[in-house]
Structure formats: C-alpha cells, structure tokens
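Something for you to look into today, if you have time. Could you write out one complete protein record for me, on any chain you like? The space below this message is yours for that.
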Amino acid sequence: MALFGEKKRLGDLLVEKGFISNEQLQTALEEQRTRKTKLGETLMSLGYISTDDFATFFCREMGYIPVTDEELKNYDPKVLDIVGETLIKKHEILPVGIDADNINIIRVAMSDPMNLGIIDDIEMSSGMEVQPCYAPQTSISIILDKIYGRKATMEAAEQFEAEHASEFADDEEEEDDTVGDAPIVKIVRSMIQQAVRDGASDIHIEPLERSVRVRNRIDGMLREDAVYSSNMLSAMTARIKIISGLDISEKRKPQDGRLTYVVDGVEFDVRVSILPTVYGEKTVMRLTKKQGLTQEKKYLGLYPDDEARLDGIMNNPHGIILVTGPTGSGKSTTCYTVLNELNKPEVNIITVEDPVEANVAGINQVQVNVKAGLTFASALRSILRQDPDIIMIGEIRDGETAQIAVQASITGHLVISTLHTNSTSASVTRLIDMGVEAYMIGDAVVGIIAQRLVRRLCPECKVPHEATEREKIMLGYPVEQPLTIYEPGGCEKCGTGYKGRKAIYEIMPISAKIRRILHETVTAEMIQDAAVSEGMNTLRMAGARNVIEGVTSIAEMVRVAYDMDAANEANAAGAEEASAEE
C-alpha cells in the first residue's frame, strides 16, 4: 500500500517498467502541481501513457480488478440508488453492480481505489461491503454525465426561468461562490463539459425566432443537443463573453475571444466567435485539446507506403512542405506532428500562427496580431533574421506571404505551412494564382499533403452487403471479383452508425518529372497524372482503400473525396445494370 502512497513512487515504477521516460515523468509532475490532479490522470491526459496500459500496470502491480468500458456502460441502475446520487457525484465514482458470489458486496468503479475515505463513506451509507475496482476517471465521468448531466442542466434552466435571471446579462462581476452557483453558469459549464465528453469539436448556440438551439459538431456532423427558451440567450451569451474576455456591452459587432477550460483533468483551448444575427447573437465555440495536436507520427493513421513518402518529404533539409484541405480536416494536427518529429535540440524552429493552437516545448511560437501590424508577412521578415532552421507558417493566405515562404525555402530553410485547396495538384495552381512563378514552385516545394477526415463505421452495428458493379467501379475494384463492403447501422453506442474519425491522405513528393512539368504548361490534371504514375494514392483511392477494408462506408468516401469522373463511370455502369435487368 505504501508503494503508491507517494505519487513520485508511482512515476518511478512507470519509468522502471518502461511505460514512460524520466523526462515525461518530470513534465507530468510539474503539470500535476498546476492542475492538482492525480499523477496517473495527468500522464494519460498528456498522452504519455494510454488508458489501457495504465490500467494494466496499475491493476497488475496493486492487485485491483479493472472495470472495462463495457461494464461501465452496463451498470446496474438499482445499485446507484443504494449508494445515492450525492455520494456518487461528490466522489465521482460509479457503482456497477453486486458481486456475483456475495450479495452483500457492491462493486464500485473508482479512479483511486486505494482511497479508504471514499470506501468508508460508501460502506456507511449503503451498509454493504465495497469491492473497489479501477477505471479511468474520464470513462467514469462520461457515464456520470449521461446519467446526471442532462438532468442537472434542465434543472438549472428551469431554475433560471423561475428566477427571471436574464438580468445576469448586465452583470460584469468576476465569478465568486454566488455566481458559480447561478443557473446560467451551471448551464454553460455543463454545455462545455457534455460537448467534450461527447467528442464534439464545436458548440453552436443559435438564436431562432422563439427558442435557442444548441448543436454540437461530432465526427464532422452537427447534432442537436438542447433547446432553451429564447429569453435565456442574452444571459448565456453574456456568460460566455465574460469568461472569454469579450465586451458584453457590444452586441452589434462580431467578436472573437478564447479561454482555457479543464474537463476531467484535460486542458482544452476554446476559441469563441460571436456573430450578430436577426434573432440575436450566435455563438460558436471551437474545442481543441491542448495536448491533442502534439502526437507521434504513428498516430496519424498512415499506411506504410504513405508514411514512407512523408518520411522522404520530411528528410529534405530545405524547401516547402504544404498541408492542404478544408477547415476541420486535421491540417493543424499534421503540421504539429511533423514539427514534433523535427524538433531536436540542435534545430531552431520558429512558428507564426493565427492563433497559436498548441504550446510545444523547445519551439519559438509567434502569435499574429493584425491590429499591431504583426501579420504573417511582417512576422516572416523578422523571423528570417532570427537564424531559423525550420519555419512553420499557420496559413499562406496571400501572394506576399507565398513569395516570402518561397524565398525562405530557396535560401536554405525548411518551411511548413497550410493552404486551403482540394488536392495536392490544385495547391500548385493556387500558388501560381497568388503570383508565384511555376518554375519557382518546382524549386521551392518539396512535397504536398492533402487530407480529409472520414467517419469510422461503428464496429458494433455496421451492416455488410455485397458490392454492386457500380460500387466496385467507384472503388476501383475488379468488377468480376466478389467484394463485401459495409454500411452504417445505428445502435445505442453510436446513434448514427459511425463512431470516431480517421484521416485519409494524398501525399505528393515533388519529383524530377513533376518539376519538368512545372517548367512547361501547367495544369492540375497534368501534375496529378504524373504523381499517380509515380505511385501516389489520390484521396479517392485512399477513401476506397478504407471502404474495402471495412473502416468506412462508400457514402462517406463520396462525401469527403468525390470524384466526378469516377462517379460518371459508375453511373454509366449502374444504367447498364438497370437496363440489363429490364
């Protein structure tokens, strides 16, 4: 028992067993002091150890029984009443059931099963013996949120209505104990917590004619979460403005702000955008896990051949690496992952971003401030005098920034940036449209990565079916060979048939053949044809690969990587099938 009495000893054991490095332990201990969370939870939130690895280690070393996610989801509702809502919420625990061999023993999932104080509380309240079992706090919190979260939010909304608390919109006081208990504060807090636990990337608070609608973007799709009375809008908006440092008296102009929010021990960066509409101010909050962007390359989900191409691009000592795709396609994650791979003590890395999305140790990061005259272009000029080896530009938005990036790459720097285009080949023509000469692009750019996020089919309810001739043509699969593909079903665990997302990539190194094309008449089609002939997988090919492997559906592939030529060919095949049947 004393073995885990000191948090440092737990960390030493994890280092000794090879789960984490000593440097990771020291970083986690510093972070733990700031967050005031358990060391195990801190290590998991930083991504230094997976929940499965920590559970295996903790239970093996201490002899506790782990509780799986399946057991948590299938808890016995009768046991909740035995322990009581007050104790469950106070200690953030989840009673899961009665022991199979002894009806006087209650099994309780806890993130700290050695906490004798919690065990004593439960035993005194329930009159039963407690068998403490280990489960990650995040997993417990997600279940508790489903049990009690919605109920608490609706109670707070009813309380707000009863108290006519819309006057809160004019209250600019800092949060104290009284304000912290105010209904509107509970609603906003619960709204953010539920969105995080549901895996949402954005929260939309939308004023309608007679109500306020809250929708969360989960796996790239908006889902309605709640509907409130319209007289709550001003108070909700004011509360969000206060915590994100915005002017609550200004209601006629758009405003942008940001705040940091901690949910289940994990720190989130929340970017807030407020826009006046005909029925009132609409608020969108974008949620980003601060440590979620700085991950290892193996977690990008690359196929071995694509990973080899990416390694080849990253090994260039100088040149431009472009990451392209629409908003919300995971470009920032890819850029930060590449930076993480290149981040070494002997290299000077400087970034210029708007905004800085994640703090990375050992990298110098600059925040764009247009009002102060610090634009991408002006920051880049100054950065070039800071002796950089690697520069990351958050986004190439104009010709001036593009020209400076090209000059920087030609003079011996490695430049990483993002661009809003649909494919790798289209990125070249976009740079030409910005005023960069085609031959300069051939000399400067070393590789382009286009990406999208496709929704994963829920493994519990995906429905198999034999692919038709039309579908095989769309997938580029031999028509004469049998193929089973899957469609979304829909179950309690996913609701939509999809659960989670996966990135698909189109990675194009700039080869000698493509450089020759760039010195001649340039079209996106010519560049893509040359790249495909050299082995590049297009986004459609990557999507088809995931459909064939049962990761996603053909409808999802079409949604994110639509190919007009493939669709026309498939439609023609479909028409032939129909006429043959007739």
About this structure: The longest strand covers residues 445-457. Residues 137-163 form the longest helix (27 residues). The mean pLDDT is 84.
